[in-house]
Amino acid sequence: PDWISSHVRTFEFFGGVTQLLVPDNLKSAVSKADRYAPEVNTTYAELARHYGTTVLPTRPRKPKDKAKVEVAVQVVERWILARLRHHTFFCLSELNTAIRQLLQEMNARPLQRQKVS
After folding, report:
1. At 33, which helix (H) or strand (E)?
2. pLDDT score of 10
3. How much is the pTM?
4. Contact 22, 65 (CB under 8 A)
5. Domain that holds residue 49
6. For residue 116, what are the CA distances in angstroms to 28, 74, 76, 94, 109?
7. Are 27 and 40 in contact (CB under 8 A)?
8. Are residues 26 and 45 in the same domain?
9. Domain total for the chain?
């Protein structure tokens, strides 16, 4: 349920769904990992069908399948953590608000080699 509800909230936040979901081989996404014919978890497959998207899990033990995404996540984590490291938060909603504001700020910044954010 957490895996599925996280996807639903993400789709709602962005106001749409990607054409392709590319999860790692965690049990919530993949019932049986296989390099050529992975078996997608039934509930996850139903979610994809409901939203009109496709699930294509990464290949087992192939970290290069999502290398660009992993680097982007690392950049965001470091950038946000660096700005929040001296702050104290007293509840999760306060922390989430701070993270959301920093994410919006980061997403508004132009890309280094392009003139878009």
Report:
1. none
2. 93
3. 0.69
4. yes
5. 2-60
6. 35, 21, 17, 30, 8
7. no
8. yes
9. 2
